[in-house]
Amino acid sequence: MTSTNKYSEFIRNLHSPRAFLPEPMPVEDIKQVLEDAQSAPSNSNTQPWNVHVVGGEKLKELSAALIKEFDTNGLSPDFTTDYGEGIHPQRSQELAAKMYGLLGIKREDKESRVEFVRENLRFFGAPHAALLFIPPMGDRVRAAFDQGTYAENFLLSLEAHGYHGIPQGMISLIAPTAREFLGVDEDYKLVAAITFGTADESSPVFNTAPGRAPLSETVTVHGIEGLELD
Ligand SMILES: Cc1cc2nc3c(=O)[nH]c(=O)nc-3n(C[C@H](O)[C@H](O)[C@H](O)COP(=O)(O)O)c2cc1C
Question: Which structural domains are found in the chain, ordered by start?
């Protein structure tokens, strides 16, 4: 591998910061990132991403509305939050343990954990967020996949322009409030937001580095002689 090495390094260095500086990005840079994200592939080129980009006072107001709803009524997601059983919830628990460990929050300290949920709803102090809504299309699974390609383009573009982003499923757990605040039709379902700006590199959760499973846990090879996975 020659030229792909640099790109591989770039991809593998991508990570999710959970603390941002408040300074907004120049609007030209936001536009570039949106153009890059827009170039994502999608099923039959349907481009089923309906994106609401929020910043400034509007983002603060949205955050306040989400926190108020969370504190009053709890969660109201459009989709289940069930990770099933076995390895998937186990990985999620390992991430939580690592993250709370870095923040010095103990397992039994429920209030600090709830406060960290509120920190999610404060968009980790970031100046911008893009909320990704899925239009009414069948069972929405194909569109959700396409949202993933869009989101990854978005995140890679941020990184390429010297910024950072984190996908936030947490925002979608209070979907009706987000819809009402942004004036989005009830048929448009929220799966995630991407929170973005300049990350606070001094934060203990700038890079939680949760690692990844070995390839042999997730990939099965058929008919490719010599491709052995660790
Ligand atoms: C669709 C999606 C939703 C996510 N939602 C959240 C979230 O609500 N809050 C959070 O702190 N991290 C969230 N993350 C970040 C993941 O926890 C993170 O990508 C994973 O732990 C791997 O860590 P890394 O991105 O730092 O390598 C989300 C990631 C994705 C792809």
Answer: 20-80+122-200 (3.40.109.10)
